[in-house]
Amino acid sequence: METSSTAVGYDSRAILIHGQRTLILSGAIHYPRSTPAMWPELMRQSKEAGLNTIETYVFWNLHERERGVFDFSERLDLFRFCALAEHYGLHVILRIGPYICAETNYGGLPAWLRDVPDMAIRTYNQPFMREKERWVRFLVDYIRPLLASNGGPIILAQLENEYENIASRYGTEGQHYLRWVSELGQALNLGIPLVMCVGAAAGAIETMNGFYAHPMLEQHTFQHPDQPAIWTEDWPGWYDTYGYPHHIRTPQDVAYGVARFIAAGGTGVNYYMWHGGTNFGREAMYLQTTSYDFNAPLDEFGQPTTKLRHLAQLHSILTDYADLLLSNERAQPQSLGELQTAYTYANNTYTLTFLCNDAPLPADCSWNEEQVSLPAHSVLLLVNGQLRFNTSDIATVHAARRDYQPQEQLIHERSWTTEPLPSHWPALLRSAVTEEKPREQLALTHDRTDYCWYSTTFSTAEEEEGTLSLIGFADVAHIFIDGKFYATSPTPLIENRGSFEGPAFSQSFRFSLPVGDHELMILSCAMGLIKGDWMIDANMVEERKGLWGHARWNSTVLEGPWSMQPGLVGEQTAFFAAGGTLVDWQLVGAEASQEPLRWWRLTFDRPEAAGPYVVDLAGMQKGIAWLNGRCIGRYWLARATGELDHWHTNIIFAQNTDEPTQRYYHLPNEWLQDKNTLVLFEELGGDPASIAICSVTETPLS
């Protein structure tokens, strides 16, 4: 690749690469959400489907889990990921952030920022800006050889992300911070343009996010007449949260959105996500499922879908006529009806016409003295008057469905051991803190574990049915009284919970207790940190887990003292890895199934069927899973009883309502061995006899 300080630029119509206007067809693939063995095939299929660019966020929260200790190994090998993209002829858009949102834990920020004195996140705050600048400069030194200005594949970079979502919260201090971000961006001397979506700092190309971007074009052109129209996040689906249905968006609607945007003058599209992948470990944000499939064109396991094949047809036409599109100014709309419009791009050889119907119903229009039927919410692409593509028409050969095929007789041993209650912990592992009032969980765990025990005693004067209330609590509570499991938090939980004083941070449990003294033990289970301020109506540094308020039995406040024990015995001694060899695992018996606080170990052979592979956990309830010592993520078989967001109406549709939000969990090929060990920490109790290893296929419907 030619080395030039002006390798990438832009004008009002397009991104310029080596002086040439370039139509950007990009897909988001997040390197930590897949494994390095998957990357080449993801790149190959992306290129084959007509993309010319890959976009990724940079995950500061994963690269620097402990301050000053950096990790760029295995699936965090960003340099290798970008170099592979270049090998497959793909540019890279690098969204540095370091705040990235992304449905990742703490929006991509390391949790240890909470422990920095006087910290306030994403506003004009010296401790935050000092840590951000330190990381960004370190990262830029790492990736500098990959910049297009140095002959590498990275053509655009982003600092910050969607600041407009919180700008009103921080007012002038927020704008002061944005100016500082702009100054930092210029000081980095990247030699490539900066972009920023939804609320850009000065000096950056402002880009768009949404299900559709064509309605934003007029305002964008008015506010930024010197900038091209770039759609950084075209959402081809939506993410899933536990307790809510799987979100899907039709291939036809995604293709309509892209074609409609290009017709009206857009010249850069990035699908967010193109391949969503998996939230391994504890890397998902609050309530986000371990699957980050996103109903994306390449599914969670990297397999092509109906959506990918349909979009590939569109990309082929757009690429064939990219020079025609970009050598012209934005086409002027020609009205064909109330919500029907034509856009035409022409030269001496070709005419490319987009016939657009924005209405939710079909429409008959006149075009070139002929009657044309436009399907609802569609775009027809005509070349020299001949129909080349209809966004609403999926070719039969492109339709496919996903199937899960259980692999029989792979699992040959199931065994278990108990996770003890805090009163039965080995003395050497106890690190309980005792105080008069309960202390917020993250102050104790620093987000190194999801779990923290809260224990106290109280008395009942008579046998009664009553209500245990936790006022000021997050996220999931399992209630034990006198060593016996009594209750767990009701679902679904709410993603955006509002004020800490509001009802979303209180939970109640009703049950009967005999007369006498009782020991209350609460296993608090964090479900990931928030991704943004709006989820708690406070600065992100205020994020809380566990019990920080008080507990009541009926109207009586439980005064304490409270004992707080972070973590689990099985975590501290690594039951899921080398520590498992020291455990007295017991073979499965009827007495073990459906009991809470169980560690399960299953051994199985490598499947012989073609991958990818998943584990079907339909018989279990809630916990964390490890494959050969690697954490594959949280699991929760919470039923999808929640409703879709109202602003998704007629765009996103619910699938698998009243079934578990996520039943199948990815077992990466790269992590499998000839003999495998799957370990589950089951919080509530399940039947491991129903667990199965499955292969996954995309089966053609034709």
From TrEMBL:
Does this UniProt record's set of keywords contain Cell division? no
User: Which InterPro entries does its entry note?
Assistant: BetaGal_gal-bd, Galactose-bd-like_sf, GH, Gly_Hdrlase_35_cat, Glyco_hydro_35_CS, Glycoside_Hdrlase_35
Keyword terms, alphabetized: Glycosidase, Hydrolase, Signal
Which residue ranges does the record assign to the Glycoside hydrolase 35 catalytic domain? 15-316
Which reactions does this protein catalyse? Hydrolysis of terminal non-reducing beta-D-galactose residues in beta-D-galactosides
Highest rank taxon of the organism: Bacteria
Enzyme kind, highest EC tier: hydrolase
Please give one Pfam family short name.
BetaGal_gal-bd
Gene3D superfamilies assigned to the protein according to its UniProt record, in alphabetical order: Galactose-binding domain-like, Glycosidases
As recorded in UniProt, its EC number(s) are: 3.2.1.23
- What GO terms in the biological process aspect are recorded for it? carbohydrate metabolic process
Query: Which parts of the sequence belong to the Beta-galactosidase galactose-binding domain?
Result: 598-675
Q: Which GO terms describe its molecular function?
A: beta-galactosidase activity
What family is this? Belongs to the glycosyl hydrolase 35 family.
The UniProt entry, under PANTHER family, shows:
BETA-GALACTOSIDASE RELATED
Q: This protein is called what? A: Beta-galactosidase
